[in-house]
Write a structure and sequence with these properties.
48% of the residues lie in helices and 16% in strands.
Length: 439
């Protein structure tokens, strides 16, 4: 009986071992990518599989998964130890992941395959150097993907540029019930903290970068007071539907991201609604998302190749065409394409983009919502992780928001979300047809 029991145990153990080996083999041919929704030209995923086979002789299958909140993505990796091979967090989460030892360095050696990582703009490298990684340089552990600013999207039929040139527009009675605010406490707190300290900044008492590290009780109280002045104007705190509400003229102003603004401006133009976007004069934030390889990744090689693939100029252009956000790639090919598109779109005013594309780009005609002029960027700063103070910021945000939606607004928002989904599908079909003509 004892011998039989030992035999059974050995058989089961061998079976588990074989299963584990088979699982490991199959996992080596899978690349798990974790990204924001609507944040890539998904046709590139299958094209990467073909490209990877050409470059390495190895098969790979991309498993593509989505998240909608940075913290959810982080929790799955940090506490769930999920084995994503590539993820796309924002700058302050990259900072937190570095501090918590949750990232692997990116291998920048690709054998005979060209290294496209050098296509990333020097400006992006410089900003990533400012990420506080507890002695680790973020450029060794992350590669930028998309970037932009936070500002005010407004309807030119009802709002002039002078109405929104300052963050004080948020509590202008003219916009009562006609303002949507992005439901992202960091992206709202940071520019309002800059507004509240504009005189100190002018006197040289504090820098904008220093303010981006400030989440003290005193600063939180100041911003909370400003937000409570704003609240009578707020029709809703939105994660994604604000841009659609602007195209439907259900609001006059939207505190939002530049990428959402581009989408809204383009969509609104098709129904004869004229929208525009501005970064208020006091200053704002520049935000960044980047590719990283999480600590529990199983296919590090394919992950590095995937990041390299995304840095190719033609792939950066396709992603920008698809999602409306701005790639970190700063090659002449990207600048030429985006400049030609801007001229075709009726833009005429040249901008100083030498900070992004190099010295020869000091007078480029390009869409200023996508690529802000040097003067705009110089009055912006990058957000940082607030660490243990995050809870205090969230508590303030919850106090401010409360219940700000009536039943009518809920119905309108649901209708807007449905319309957004339909419009998104139609837009993808249209862009794919355009891309077939272009490529």
């Amino acid at each position: 009986m004892k011998k039989l029991l030992i035999y059974i145990i050995l058989v089961v153990a061998c079976g588990i071992a074989l299963t584990g080996c088979n699982g490991a083999d199959s996992r080596e041919s899978i690349l798990k990518v974790y990204n924001w929704a609507d944040y890539i030209d998904e046709e590139l995923l299958s094209e990467f599989e073909e490209w990877y086979k050409e470059q390495t002789g190895e098969d790979v299958t991309v498993v593509y998964q989505l998240f909608d909140i940075n913290e959810i993505m982080l929790a799955k990796i940090e506490r769930g130890k999920e084995d994503f091979d590539v993820a796309c967090p924002s700058e302050y989460i990259i900072e937190r992941m570095l501090k918590n030892d949750l990232l692997l360095p990116i291998n920048k050696e690709f054998g005979s395959t060209p290294n496209y990582l050098g296509n990333v703009s020097p400006y992006i490298h410089k900003v990533f150097d400012e990420i506080d990684g507890n002695g680790k340089n973020a450029n060794d552990y992350s590669v930028g993907y998309m970037w932009g600013t936070t500002g005010l999207l407004y309807n030119k039929r009802y709002v002039t540029e002078s109405d929104v040139e300052s963050w004080s527009a948020l509590w202008n009675p003219k916009f009562k019930g006609k303002l949507f605010v992005k439901d992202a406490f960091r992206d709202v707190y940071s520019p309002l903290l800059i507004y509240a300290n504009q005189e100190r900044i002018a006197r040289g008492e504090v820098t904008m970068n220093e303010l981006m590290h400030d989440s003290s009780d005193e600063s939180i109280a100041v911003v909370e007071a400003l937000l409570k002045k704003t609240k009578p104007n707020v029709a809703g705190w939105e994660a994604d539907f604000g841009k659609e509400m602007m195209t439907k003229e259900k609001a006059m102003v939207n505190l939002t991201w530049s990428g959402d603004a581009v989408w809204a401006i383009d969509e609104a133009a098709e129904v004869d609604v004229e929208l525009d976007y501005i970064v208020p004069k006091e200053g704002s934030i520049v935000w960044f998302d980047g590719w990283v390889i999480p600590k529990y990744a199983k296919n590090v090689k394919a992950a590095s190749y995937f990041i390299n693939f995304m840095c190719m100029s033609e792939n950066a252009i396709r992603n920008m065409d698809e999602i409306g956000y701005v790639s970190v790639i700063g090659t002449p090919e990207v600048m030429e394409y985006m400049s030609e598109s801007a001229v075709e779109g009726g833009f005429e005013e040249p901008l100083d983009l030498s900070y992004f594309f190099g010295e020869d780009a000091d007078s480029v005609v390009i869409n200023p919502v996508l690529y802000p002029d040097r003067k705009v960027v110089e009055r912006c700063a990058m957000m940082h992780d607030s660490g243990p103070r995050t809870a205090a910021l969230l508590e303030m945000w919850s106090r401010v928001k409360g219940d700000n939606l009536n039943n009518w607004m809920v119905v309108v928002i649901l209708i807007a979300i449905l319309a957004l989904l339909v419009a998104g599908i139609m837009r993808k079909v249209k862009r794919r047809r355009q891309r077939r003509r272009r490529w």
